[in-house]
């Protein structure tokens, strides 16, 4: 029997039907065997009785050898259709009389073998002796057909078959009904399982109508369902929370992305991002505008593929360096692609594992700035040239005024007081003008004489200034102290002029026994940044020139460094108004900065930041 | 330095030439001074000079031919190149001063603005 893939209902029905069929068959088979055996015994006994009665009645016929009488006796059984033959044999074995129902039959049993009955070829036949007293006077042969028995057995088989069929059918229908009490709860449980697995509805429950094992099964199933339902609800709650959070994040991410895109695309700066294969992965609107290529045309493509002229340019090499981890700043260069001037900055972009995944390029077009700067430089240079020439040419006539005033003074005799005073005025005015011209000349020459920078020991510079100002220091009874100063890269003459001017000022603006202190320290990082120095990566020395002189209103701290700016009306402090402008220009030439703090009546502190010679 | 009995003054400035000659004659009246208004005239004067001047006082900033050019020329002329040269300039001629220093000149005078300073400046070269 094939059970696999068959429903439990069919299985149960088959099982019950098969069992009932087998048991019925066994019962019928046993009855059948019993019937055959008992019939045989009965038939033989009946035949024996019948034969003995006939033999007893035939005694006279045999004794008198009267065939007719014999025949009459035998006729009594002839009417019985089942008796197919009866023959009387005389003592010597000859047939006295008899009959055989079937006349075609030729085999007539001859001579009694023994006196027993047996079933042979569908007949019961046998011989009995005919006795007269103690003497055997003949033999009776009788044969009876077993046809009736066969019919009866056939009928019996038919009945048995019918019973089996009916009972099988009944069994089938009964079992069909009965098995439902078992299979229905199971099937409904199975259907429930399928429904749950298909619809994920854990709120359904198995019916609690069933009892026994099925009921227990249902109960266990329901308990399990209840647990699953709770867990499922929890899971669903978590899922919903998670989905909500993901949605929020996605929204926030999208907003951030849109925000970043808007910012990047609104930028006046070119922004591009390149992966390690130098393929564009970012390219803003400004890039489209400057390069004349749309985003769709470049994204995912190599830089030198979309702009072949880029290969080997500063931009290209800087990007390669950025992909190697460098931060590259190119203050000014001409682009090989657009031909315009740019300032650019390239840096690596790193992921959370600190691996470089791209290079960022930002650049802005400084064409207008470069052009304006070039124009400005030219004008400035023209102006300085003019100042130089003008002051040179002015110096000559002035020298003549001085010279001939001097001659006039020498030649004049009998000078009255007024004449002496006038000549003195002319000399002073001319001398003042000469100083002015000299300083303007020095200022304009700063640009013209940009000699090479050499390592300059500021201690030597200071020593030279002490020598140059020896007389003045002595006259003023001044004290100049200094800490150890650094070596800087610079123009020695300019640096000399710088410190000379500052010390001169300090002495000039102090009344009695001036004290000038020069201090030096390394500039802190904060100071370097706050000073707006050109290169914050360098190391700077912070040098201060401190005096305790007359000082000035700190509101003028900026103004004081501009050309021709003089703060003091007092004739004693008269100057050309160029000295500090000169200092500022010298410090700028040396990539440093200068500033001043002052308290009126308490003194001034000039602070200079100069990059230290890196050697 | 042997006393030059003949000198040549090359200067485009009339006043300076006048003062110069005055100071020279004041310091040593035996000195014979010759003058030229620029480098070109200076070369002409030298070409016809017999005997040659023992010293040349040279201004730098001059029209037609300036001091440095004049110097370069005579440094290429065999019989002139060894005449001592004193540069006589204003302080604003710094560029030119550098140039002539490179040509081997070692004597410099900055034109003073006081008459007595002229005497002080010139005296060492002629006495």
Question: Helical segment tally of chain B?
Answer: 5
How far is the first residue's CA from the last residue's CA of chain B?
Answer: 9 Å
Helix content of chain A: 40-55%
Residue fraction in strands of chain A: 15-25%
Distance between the termini of chain A: 103 Å
| Structure summary, number of beta strands of chain A | 17
Q: How many DSSP E strands of chain B?
A: 5
Quaternary structure: heterodimer
- Give the low-pLDDT segments of chain A: none
Greatest chain-chain contact: A-B, 17 and 13 residues
The main sheet of chain B comes to:
5 strands, parallel
The structure class of chain B reads alpha/beta
Provide the spatial order of strands within the biggest beta sheet of chain A.
2-1-5-4-3
The Cα radius of gyration of chain A reads 71 Å
Beta content of chain B comes to 15-25%
Structure overview:
The complex is a heterodimer of chains A (615) and B (127). By secondary structure, chain A is an alpha+beta fold. In chain A, 53% of the residues lie in helices and 19% in strands. Chain A contains 16 helices and 17 strands. In chain A, the strands form four sheets. In chain A, strands 2-1-5-4-3 form a five-stranded antiparallel β-sheet. A five-stranded antiparallel β-sheet of chain A has the order 7-6-10-9-8, sandwiched between helices. A five-stranded mixed β-sheet of chain A has the order 12-14-15-17-16, covered by helices on one side. In chain A, helix 1 packs antiparallel against helix 4, helix 4 (147-199) runs parallel beside helix 5 (212-266) and helix 14 (492-508) packs antiparallel against helix 16. Chain A is rod-shaped. The mean pLDDT of chain A is 83. Chain B has 127 residues and is α/β, with parallel strands linked by helices. Chain B has helices spanning 14-27, 39-48, 67-75, 94-102, 115-126, and strands at residues 6-10, 32-36, 55-58, 85-89, 107-110. Chain B has a five-stranded parallel β-sheet. Classes of the chains: A alpha+beta (615), B alpha/beta (127).
């Amino acid at each position: 029997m094939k059970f696999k893939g068959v429903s439990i209902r069919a299985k149960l029905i088959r099982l019950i039907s098969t069992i009932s069929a087998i048991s019925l068959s066994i019962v019928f088979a046993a009855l059948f065997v019993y019937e055959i055996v008992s019939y045989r015994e009965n038939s033989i006994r009946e035949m024996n009785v019948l034969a003995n009665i006939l033999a007893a009645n035939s005694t006279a016929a045999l004794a008198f050898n009267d065939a007719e009488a014999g025949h009459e006796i035998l006729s009594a059984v002839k009417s019985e259709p089942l008796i197919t033959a009866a023959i009387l044999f005389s003592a010597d074995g000859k047939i006295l009389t008899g009959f055989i129902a079937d006349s075609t039959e030729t085999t007539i049993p001859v001579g009694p073998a023994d006196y027993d009955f047996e079933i042979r070829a569908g007949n019961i036949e046998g011989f009995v002796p005919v006795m007269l007293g103690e003497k055997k006077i003949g033999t009776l042969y009788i044969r009876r057909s077993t046809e009736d028995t066969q019919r009866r057995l056939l009928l019996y088989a038919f009945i048995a078959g019918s019973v089996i069929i009916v009972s099988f059918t009944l069994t089938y229908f009964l079992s069909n009904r009965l098995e439902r009490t078992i299979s229905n709860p199971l099937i409904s449980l199975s259907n429930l399982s399928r429904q749950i697995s298909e619809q994920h509805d854990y709120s359904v429950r198995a019916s609690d109508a069933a009892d026994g094992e099925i009921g227990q099964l249902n109960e266990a199933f329901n308990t399990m369902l209840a647990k699953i339902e709770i867990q499922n609800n929890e899971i669903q709650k978590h899922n919903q929370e998670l989905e909500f959070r993901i949605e929020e994040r996605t929204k926030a991410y999208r907003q951030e992305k849109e925000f970043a895109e808007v910012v990047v695309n609104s930028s006046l700066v070119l922004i591009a991002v390149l992966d390690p294969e130098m393929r564009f992965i970012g390219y803003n609107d400004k890039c489209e505008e400057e390069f004349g290529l749309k985003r769709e045309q470049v994204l995912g493509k190599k830089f030198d593929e979309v702009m072949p002229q880029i290969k080997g340019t500063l931009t290209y090499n800087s990007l390669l360096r950025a992909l190697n981890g460098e931060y590259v700043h190119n203050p000014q260069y001409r682009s090989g692609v657009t031909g315009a001037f740019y300032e650019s900055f390239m840096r690596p972009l790193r992921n959370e594992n600190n691996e470089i995944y791209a290079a960022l390029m930002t650049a802005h077009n400084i064409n207008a700035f470069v052009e304006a700067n070039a124009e400005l430089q030219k004008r400035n240079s023209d102006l300085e040239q003019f100042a130089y020439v003008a002051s040179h040419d002015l110096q000559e006539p002035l020298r003549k005024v001085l010279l001939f005033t001097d001659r006039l003074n020498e030649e004049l005799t009998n000078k009255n007081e007024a004449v002496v005073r006038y000549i003195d005025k002319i000399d002073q005015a001319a001398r003042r003008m000469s100083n002015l011209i000299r300083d303007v000349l020095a200022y304009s020459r700063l640009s013209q004489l940009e000699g090479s920078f050499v390592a300059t020991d500021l201690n030597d510079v200071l020593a030279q200034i002490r020598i140059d100002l020896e007389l003045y220091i002595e006259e003023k009874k001044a004290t100049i102290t200094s800490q150890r100063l650094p070596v800087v890269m610079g123009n020695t003459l300019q640096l000399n002029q710088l410190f000379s001017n500052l010390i001169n000022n300090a002495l000039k603006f102090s009344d009695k026994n001036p004290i000038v202190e020069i201090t030096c320290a390394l500039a802190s990082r904060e100071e370097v940044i706050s000073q707006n120095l050109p290169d914050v990566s360098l190391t700077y020395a912070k040098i201060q020139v401190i005096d305790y002189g007359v000082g000035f209103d700190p509101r003028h701290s900026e103004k004081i460094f501009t050309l021709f700016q003089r703060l003091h009306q007092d004739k004693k402090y008269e100057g050309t108004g160029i000295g500090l402008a000169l200092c500022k220009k010298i410090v700028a030439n040396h990539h440093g900065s200068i500033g001043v703090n002052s308290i009126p009546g308490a003194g001034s502190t000039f602070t200079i930041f100069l990059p230290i010679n890196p050697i | 330095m042997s006393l030059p009995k003949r000198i040549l003054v090359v200067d485009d400035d009339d006043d300076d030439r006048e003062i110069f000659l005055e100071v020279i004659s004041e310091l040593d009246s035996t000195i014979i001074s010759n003058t030229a208004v620029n480098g070109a005239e200076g070369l002409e004067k030298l070409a016809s000079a017999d005997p040659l001047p023992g010293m040349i006082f040279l201004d730098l900033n001059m029209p037609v031919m300036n001091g440095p050019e004049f110097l370069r020329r005579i440094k290429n002329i065999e019989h002139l190149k060894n005449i001592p040269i004193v540069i006589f300039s204003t302080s604003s001629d710094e560029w030119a001063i550098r140039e002539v220093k490179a040509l081997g000149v070692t004597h410099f005078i900055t034109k003073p603005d006081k008459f007595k300073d002229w005497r002080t400046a010139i005296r060492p070269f002629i006495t």
